[in-house]
Each structure stands twice: as structure tokens, then as C-alpha cells.
Design brief:
Chorismate synthase, AroC fold; 7 helices; single chain; alpha+beta; globular; 21% strand
Amino acid sequence: MSGNTFGNLFAVTNFGESHGSAIGCVIDGCPPGMALSEADIQPELDRRRPGTSKFVTQRNEPDTAEILSGVYQGRTTGTPICVLIRNTDQRSKDYGDILQTFRPGHADYTYFQKYGIRDPRGGGRSSARLTAPTVAAGAVARKWLREQYGTVFRACMTQIGEVPIAFESWEHVGANPFFAPVADVTALEDYVQALRKDGDSCGARIRVVASGMPVGLGEPLFDKLDADIAWAMMGLNAVKGVEIGAGFASVAQRGTTHGDAMTPQGFVGNNAGGVLGGISTGQDLEVQIAIKPTSSILSPRTSIDTNGTPVEVVTKGRHDPCVGIRAAPIAEALLALVVMEHALRHRAQCGDVRSGLAPVPAAAPLGD
């Protein structure tokens, strides 16, 4: 199975299965000399890990990071960094009833048709469990970008199912289990509790922002920064849509509105989402992703087995009623990996990313 490595200069290879002994990643290309320890990675894993509230899967994994290589005396050496995360709370027996059947909306059918074999335990490689190594790698990228350029990554939930979430402040995001930018999440709690009672699931919309962006990242025509962002976000489990800047709202805008006017004080707006011609403007990168409802639910659904015989599927086990609830840290990590890759590319071709013309000051995006 190919397709498990992200990036070229900052290459991250993801390995493991949901119910295997461990999962992890190998990071090849991290610049040498950066101070790095498990303490730099663990806080991000803790934000993503399961079992942190009653609104997500109750699989109780500590997701403890172990750095096995690539660090000597507390600093990166420039050699591959291996981060291991052991699985400790697997319940493979929960999947005994679906060994020969396909869950609607899941990757069971396509994996079986492509490889002739699949690991049904928790979804194997297609499980959201495999986003933990991505978050670990993203933590390394985030640290380097923060120290080099002051870039900061943030994400929040802006809609869950049919319920839109108004933006109040980034300060609220870390204070509730939904990563919601509001002080009162009572309505969200009630909504998810009703989903659980019905044995159903829902989708979500996540906003991801990178602030303190350097100017000039991105390689046209076919390695545009926004194109790589969309590619990366579509690699996240359950993502079905990606918007950059105004996104699909651009369809209803006029050119006099959509084109972000420029003044000596900066850009007037950010409909472009921080990217023009595939190259970063220095404004905030503004990305939104749409996440589909969780496929593994208790409600009975019609499907087929490996022989093509009609069956009824009920998925047992511990699952998120909305996988979007824990998606914010993962989306941040993916955006950091893309920016890290392009920062290293720019340095290789053009030297220091801060060279060249002084950037036009970036106007703050609406809602902040």
C-alpha cells in the first residue's frame, strides 16, 4: 500500500493500524538544531485524543508520544525522527460481526475490492485513529515555524450538523470539548446527546487559520500553496469539501467585492484566504473544511457481505457521534505540514523566506 507519506522536503510517513500494537510516524527532513522533546508533542496529542469528554468516543487511549530517533541531547540532528504512539485500549471483539460485511459509508468495501484483504478492527488503516501521528508530526512543524517566522495555527468548529456556531472569540475554543469559539455550548451538548440517543451521527464544518504567515510561499503552476492545502485537507478522514478564503461564496460576489483592495496600510479584506496566484500574501491563511457524518453508527442499515448477499449492519464499538468534534487539532496539524513543506522549498530556491520586498501589512480577517 503506497500513499502513506506526506511531503517531500519535510516528509512524514504514517504507519500502524487502529487495533495494532502501535501507530506512529517517521519525519524525514526536519532541520537540525531545534530543541525538541516529547513535551513539545504531547499537548497537541492530548487535544486530539479520544475519551476526553462524553461527547466523543470513549476509547481510553493516553496517546503518549515516544521519540525513538532523530534527537540527540535534546536537539534535532537532521536525521529521521520516529515518533511512536502505543495502542493500549483496543476492543477488537466489537468488530466480530462485520468481518464479512461492509459498513455503508465506510472504506470497508473499497479496501477489500482494491487489496483483496482488509483489517476490520476499528477500520484498520482507514480509522481516524491514524490521525494521531499526523498531529505529532504537525507539532514538530508548528514549533519550527513558530520559532522561525512566528506563525501560529488555530482551528475551531463553526457548525455541527444543522447548528451554525457564531464566532465570539478564540479564547473560548480551548475551554469546551467542541473546539467551539463561543462561551455557551449548552445547545451543542444537547444536540450531540440527542444524536447518541437516536444511534445516529452528523457532520461538521471546521475553520482553520494560520496567522503570522511569511510572504512568498507557494510554487505555481501546479504546486500552489492553496492547491496543496486543499490536497492535504482532503487527505483527512471524512472530509468532503474544502474552501479557501471566500470559497463557494465567491460565486455570488462581484469582482468589485471579491478582489481584496490594497492600501499602504494593508489589504482591505481577505476573500483570497491569504493566497494570490498560489503564493502566500502574508495575510492569514483562511481555510474551511466540511466533514461528513460518522459512518459507524448503531442504527441498522442495509448493505452486502463479501459474497454480495444482502445483510443488515449494526456497528458496535466506541465511536464519535461527530468526528468533527476532534478534527480541529488535526486540521491545524495538516495546515502546518503544508506551510512547513513550502517554507523549506522556498528557502531551497530563494533563500531566506523573509528576503525580497517588504510585505504589505495584512488586514485582520472579519470575525476576529
